[in-house]
Amino acid sequence: MLALGLSLGLSILPAVGVKTKDLTLIRSGGSLSLGVFVFLIISFLCLLYAFVGDDFTVKYVADNSNTALPIPYKVSAIWGAHEGSFLLWTMIMGGWTFAVASFSRSLTIDIKARVMAVMGGLNTGFLCFLLFASNPFERNLPFHPQDGADLNPLLQDFGLIVHPPMLYMGYVGFAVPFAMAIATLTAGRIDAAWARWSRPWTNAAWAFLTIGIALGSWWAYYELGWGGWWFWDAVENASFMPWLVGTALVHSLAATEKRGVFKSWTVLLAISAFSLSLLGAFLVRSGVLTSVHAFAVDPARGVFILAFLILVVGGSLLLYAYRGGLSPGLASFSWKSREAFILSNNLLLVVATSVILIGTLYPLVYEVITDGSKISVGPPYFNAVFVPIMSVLFMIMVFSPFSRWGDTELELLFRKNRSKILLVIFFVSMATVFFGQDVFYYGLGLEILAVMIIVFLIKKVLELKQVPSASYLGMLLSHFGVAVVILGVAVTVYYSEGKDVRMDPGEKIVVSGYEFKFLGVEKVRGPNYLSDQAEFMVSRDAKVIATLRPEKRFYPVAQDVMTEAAMHVSLFRDLYIALGEPVGESAWAVRVHVKPFVRWIWFGGLLIALGAFVTLFDGRYRAARYKTVQVPALGVSP
Amino acid sequence: MKFGTMKPHRRERLLLILFVLAAAGSSIAFVLMALNDNINLFYSPQQILSGEAPTNRVIRAGGMVLEGSVIRSSKDLEVRFLISDMKGSSVPIVYRGILPDLFREGQGIISKGKLEETGTFIATEVLAKHDENYMPPELAEVLPKTHRKNGEWKVKE
């Protein structure tokens, strides 16, 4: 079983080895990438088989699974720890490589070969790492355990089944624009065609990353039992930084494609997005940073990824420094043009990324310069530096979606909509005063901005005379999603109310006008856990709204206790109860939250991703594909 | 070339560059200030006892929760316990709130809060990592090696 997996893995290597030389074997790229992908799928299926069949001779299975573990979690346990999740990562890399090979007939043949070579190189690196530093098929022979140590109970959850694959699709997906950027750099011509090839790939990767981050935030919210949705944890930052730079890239690619501006800047962004993905992988997997997500520490892995990181990032930046100045010639545009707005969007996003990067890496730097002092950088830092930058970005977002290339009559746009702006300010302020007891000016400002963005986007859609292009529609939808997120964040942050209290059965507590009555606790048995299940009755104005049953679960195999929060979900507010621990004969520590608009954060995130997916259906990309089907043929005939 | 004799577009570009530099400079200053205000230094129980740790500033302290030291209030969620480096130094901690699931006696934790003049640490946050095979580097340094072989850091006395 294991030998099979290993030999399969090994047989992939030569294939990749050949592929990296494929500048001479240009046409082989497609079939080779198929081979790599198929073999990766087979090894993935082998691991899947080992998990589902409880093959505890495989060490990774023994460490992360158990006979009592429900089947869906046995499957997701594959990516529950380092080795298996890296196999997933590598398989996805193979998938993207194969996808590029199959769906990019519009690429000229030499560029395509270069793209395949770069992606092949990356594949090789990941595979080496997988085989030599983190082989999930390592055996536990001759003494293998009778039963497995079980999957970490926190990870036994639907969110974790979906979150890592989505996230990796995003991380690894940025390898495609990266490879395309490197390809154009080596070919020595950066042009609008390059931007057009890269755009759908970038949008797709970015959409997956968006979903991944939104799911991660959602999972943390209901599974960690803290009721928070973002912690500025090093690992969250590791996924957020490529996302921010990816967002900048999505925008600047548009400008490069449509107007031929910011070419080398866009290339740099493409390189940065993928570099930050790799940096994220390094931070998460090397254990250099203290984080709630960190995998078990293994310095050897850290060194390997760091070396790979330096090679890829250093190499590509050198190449950029050497070739990046190839296409000078800034087009001129007014400060009110769409180009200018995209430029400011890019600058703000890059600055935001930089401050997060500084905050994330500062503990490492500090430790080195002070010879071993350990610090952590808390959420206050990130809030203090990140929120103002994004606020400026949101202000620009109100009108920029309607701006024109070259120049925009901003004054006219402003004058025509003055009454609407005032109306929005008036209504949002009134609503805030009416529903929230207190008014927070910063929060109110953000709410007004968000509602304004939403109103103008809807107005634009209503005014459309014909069906717009898919990419325009997707753009509107994504911006709409961002506004929904802003509104959700602003309201949740300022108007959530939460209490941690000690409660005896029969006691009541009132939070934000909702009455929570603690009825009692009973024992319940789950498939692989025992649970204390509490019952709460929630009512408002003497009307019963819901009965909530938060749990405290005990997983005997892993010897772990876990909180399972209970929620009553609605569009405008979440009622959230988590059990702490028993603190007396019958009393329990209880956490009660009322969180208005918190759902909007994740719903908005999904809208952003949906918008990006919509852009993929733009006829322009497909037309380009059909038009140039003959190009490969031409490339062969001479 | 003197500033005044520059061609208009050159002067514009120069002004733009100066503006960008000024903006970059002030934002870096702001970031460093924010960073300085929000770093939380880590102290071991031994450092706290020897008076190395500042009082009334948010810091982090970490160690093993001593067996039998956890005392709960019977009225509210107040908990008192001792954290130790298992080398003879221990610090009393007071925390009001819900402890993480992985908190238990004989378990390594990191807490964030302020040290009082009296030597008691008032914690606002207690962290026990949600993967018991993972040991934060800070704790790994504080605790003696025998307490963390094979990445196992739930130690029974």
Q: State the helical fraction of chain B.
A: 25-40%
Tell me the number of strands of chain B: 7
Q: Give unreliable regions of chain A as ranges.
A: 1-7, 292-296, 624-638
Show unreliable segments of chain B: 146-157
CATH homologous superfamily of the largest domain in chain B, by name? Answer: Nucleic acid-binding proteins
End-to-end gap of chain A: 48 Å
Query: How many domains of chain B, as an integer?
Result: 2
Helix content of chain A: 55-70%
Overall body shape of chain B: elongated
Q: From the alpha-carbon coordinates, what is the Rg of chain A to the nearest angstrom?
A: 26 Å
CATH third-tier fold name of the largest domain in chain B: OB fold (Dihydrolipoamide Acetyltransferase, E2P)
Structure summary, number of beta strands of chain A: 11
What does the radius of gyration of chain B come to?
24 Å
